[in-house]
């Protein structure tokens, strides 16, 4: 890490993986603090104001409910404060790629075609979904 | 409001809440179901509504967990992991939407088959209920040994049972001497969030940080939308071929009798059973996915209902983790003496309110997944950061622990999460085994040490 604490320099940032997704640690500390302040804060406020107008047996439950509401507010605040640390890549597939995928996974495309043609139910389903062509359009010589 | 109305309202809350949670990838069932079910119970909700809420939550979760699994190739939760391989194949050839449709249609069918079948089986088993309750301590200890041996850790899990039991009892003793009451919610939550907390701790520690450090952001690939289907509520029997519907029904029926096996194991097994005999990759993948997601749901329903109706003590992997709050949520429910849904509801109530929960979840999550899966995924990916989600869970967990035992409760949760999480991550002592140890710990320590 370089020492010029410039958070805008994305190159100098490292991320931490927590339950399967990348996060930036300073932001995480901030979100946890905000969430705790909202949830426990709301709970404690509830404990101090509900005894004035709620039956004594319900004070704990009402305060808990207020705490949950607080944590939801915290979630919204946190979601607005920070940007997600993930990139989304939207790519399309074509029928040429179908062949590549099959080769890479070592499945036999010719066998697949035979299986489709021998199974009227399956063939019909694929036609309805508009994917039969992808499989059957380009007739290849079946491999021996 | 009548009980029926309250149950419907809570089933709607459960369905909506867990439809949204399901879209978030990696939202582990135990970590999300335990806190929310506890909240519902502690608010004094009638038992009928608690059950309807839970049933609705698990179905909604297991329909929407198919969204990240199919569209992005990341498991939605623990049970989605076995489905990744087939889902990835379909995603690679540009058909993620078909993987998704097959999965959720299987899930809906599986749930509705499992409810009546597992309930009938539970009624048959209930004659042995008293025996189980009287010997709960021994049974949990034996189960801890068994589950431990078959978990990732093998012998080390068995070896750790007594030391961990001693730690739990010790923490329990200290906290009860401070608070004059014994804690249990704090223990549950600690076990449930252990794995998440360990990730955070590793990141905080200078020496361990490289283990969780990443130079780059995660990249997710999302296939573009292909073609919408007509209508708002597609018929699951039209999405699946007759044969596939039959396969889902058969495997769901079989798995409705299981209450001691791991749901992930059952899911893989049944998927393999169906898939291995099919020629052609496309058909193999679609049939396996429908079957597997049917089984994720049927095992969850069966493993919840059988111990709940027959014994009143949590004796299955699901009731030890995600469903534990239905058995034990002091001061409302307890397992010793048995005072929980088992004693409060009749089998008929379980059927009616379970059905309400499943129907409402199906009405919410099924059309949502069919029509808005991709939009929801893009929204979450682009708008909601992971930090906010983790923050919310930590906030809710601290809130519940504080509610039970103020600062002591929070510290106990933290201590249990550190110990349990580390043992889970580095030695393979699973969450299920930890719950078993917790339940058996008082019997173990009093019997062995007097």
List the helices and strands and how they pair.
The complex is a heterodimer of chains A (144) and B (450).
Chain A: E1 15-18, E2 21-23, H1 25-49, H2 59-81, E3 86-90, H3 95-104, H4 109-117, H5 120-129, H6 132-136
Antiparallel strand pairs in A: 1-2
Chain B: H1 3-23, H2 29-42, H3 47-64, H4 66-71, H5 84-92, H6 96-125, H7 129-134, H8 136-150, H9 155-179, H10 185-204, E1 213-214, E2 218-222, H11 236-239, H12 242-255, H13 263-275, H14 281-311, H15 317-320, E3 334-335, E4 338-339, H16 341-344, H17 347-383, H18 386-427, H19 431-449
Antiparallel strand pairs in B: 3-4
Helix pairs in contact in B: 1-3, 1-17, 2-3, 2-10, 2-18, 3-6, 3-14, 3-17, 5-6, 5-14, 6-12, 6-14, 6-17, 8-9, 8-19, 9-18, 9-19, 10-18, 10-19, 12-14, 13-14
Keywords (chain A): Membrane, Transmembrane, Transmembrane helix
Transmembrane segments (chain A): 28-50, 62-82
Organism (chain B): Oceanobacillus zhaokaii
Question: Could you please describe the fold and organization of this structure?
Answer:
The complex is a heterodimer of chains A (144) and B (450). Chain A is mostly helical. Chain A folds into 2 domains: 15-81, no CATH class; 95-137, no CATH class. Chain A has helices at 25-49, 59-81, 95-104, 109-117, 120-129, 132-136, and strands at residues 15-18, 21-23, 86-90. Chain A has a two-stranded antiparallel sheet. In chain A, helix 1 (25-49) packs antiparallel against helix 2 (59-81). The longest helix of chain A has 25 residues, at 25-49. Chain A starts with 14 loop residues before the first strand and ends in an 8-residue tail after the last helix. In chain B, a hairpin with a 2-residue loop joins strand 3 and strand 4. Chain B has 19 helices and 4 strands. Chain B is globular and about 65 Å long. With 450 residues, chain B is mainly alpha-helical. Chain B has a two-stranded antiparallel sheet. Chains A and B meet through strand 1, strand 2, helix 1, helix 2 and strand 3 of A and helix 10, strand 1, strand 2, helix 14 and helix 17 of B. Strand 1 (15-18) of chain A pairs antiparallel with strand 1 (213-214) of chain B, so a sheet runs across the interface. Chain A: Keywords: Membrane, Transmembrane, Transmembrane helix. Chain A: The chain crosses the membrane at residues 28-50, 62-82. Chain B: This is DUF112 domain-containing protein. Chain B: Keywords: Membrane, Transmembrane, Transmembrane helix.
């Amino acid at each position: 890490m370089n020492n010029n604490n410039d958070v805008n320099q994305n190159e100098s940032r490292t991320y931490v993986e927590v339950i399967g997704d990348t996060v930036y640690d300073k932001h995480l500390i901030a979100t946890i603090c905000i969430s705790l302040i909202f949830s426990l804060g709301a709970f404690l406020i509830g404990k101090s104001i509900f005894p004035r107008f709620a039956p004594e047996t319900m004070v704990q439950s009402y305060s808990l409910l207020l705490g949950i509401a607080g944590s939801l507010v915290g979630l919204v605040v946190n979601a607005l404060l920070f940007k997600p640390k993930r990139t989304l890549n939207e790519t399309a597939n074509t029928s040429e790629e179908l062949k590549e995928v099959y080769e890479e996974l070592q499945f036999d495309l010719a066998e697949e075609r035979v299986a489709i043609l021998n199974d009227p139910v399956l063939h019909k389903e694929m036609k309805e979904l508009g994917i039969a062509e992808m499989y059957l359009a380009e007739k290849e010589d079946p491999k021996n | 409001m009548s009980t029926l109305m309250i149950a419907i309202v809570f089933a709607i809350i459960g369905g909506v809440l867990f439809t949204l949670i399901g879209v978030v990838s990696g939202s582990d069932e135990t970590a999300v179901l335990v806190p929310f079910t506890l909240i519902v119970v502690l608010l004094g909700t009638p038992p009928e509504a608690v059950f309807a809420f839970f049933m609705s939550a698990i179905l909604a979760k297991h329909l929407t967990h198919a969204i990240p699994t199919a569209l992005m190739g990341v498991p939605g939760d623990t049970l989605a992991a076995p489905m990744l391989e087939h889902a990835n194949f379909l995603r690679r050839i540009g058909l993620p939407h078909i993987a998704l449709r097959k999965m959720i249609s299987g899930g809906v069918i599986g749930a509705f088959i499992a409810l009546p079948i597992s309930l009938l089986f539970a009624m048959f088993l209930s004659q042995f209920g008293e025996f189980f309750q009287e010997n709960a301590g021994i049974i949990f200890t034996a189960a801890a040994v068994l589950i431990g041996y078959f978990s990732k850790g093998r012998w080390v899990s068995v070896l750790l049972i007594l030391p961990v039991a001693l730690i739990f009892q010790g923490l329990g003793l200290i906290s009860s001497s401070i608070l004059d009451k014994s804690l249990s919610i704090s223990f549950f939550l600690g076990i449930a969030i252990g794995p998440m907390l360990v990730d955070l701790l590793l990141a905080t520690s200078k020496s361990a940080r490289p283990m969780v450090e990443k130079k780059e952001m995660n990249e997710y690939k999302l296939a573009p939308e292909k073609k919408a289907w007509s209508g708002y509520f597609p018929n699951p029997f039209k999405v699946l071929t007759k044969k596939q519907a039959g396969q889902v029904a058969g495997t769901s029926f079989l798995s409705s009798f299981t209450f001691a096996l791991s749901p992930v194991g059952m899911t893989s097994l049944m998927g393999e059973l169906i898939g291995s005999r099919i020629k052609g990759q496309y058909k193999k993948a679609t049939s396996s996915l429908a079957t597997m997601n049917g089984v994720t749901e049927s095992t969850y329903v069966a493993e919840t209902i059988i111990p709940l109706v027959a014994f009143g003590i949590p004796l299955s992997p699901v009731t030890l983790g995600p469903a534990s709050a239905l058995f034990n949520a002091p001061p409302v429910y307890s397992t010793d003496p048995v005072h929980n849904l088992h004693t409060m509801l009749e089998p008929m109530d379980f059927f009616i309110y379970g059905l309400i929960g499943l129907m409402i979840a199906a009405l919410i999550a099924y059309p949502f997944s069919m029509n808005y899966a991709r939009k929801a995924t893009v929204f979450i990916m682009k708008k909601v950061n992971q930090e906010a989600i983790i923050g919310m869970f930590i906030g809710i967990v601290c809130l519940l622990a504080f509610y039970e035992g103020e600062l002591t409760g929070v510290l106990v949760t933290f201590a249990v999460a550190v110990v349990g999480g580390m043992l889970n991550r580095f030695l393979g002592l699973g969450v299920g085994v930890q719950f078993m140890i917790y339940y058996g710990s008082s019997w173990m320590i009093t019997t062995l040490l007097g």
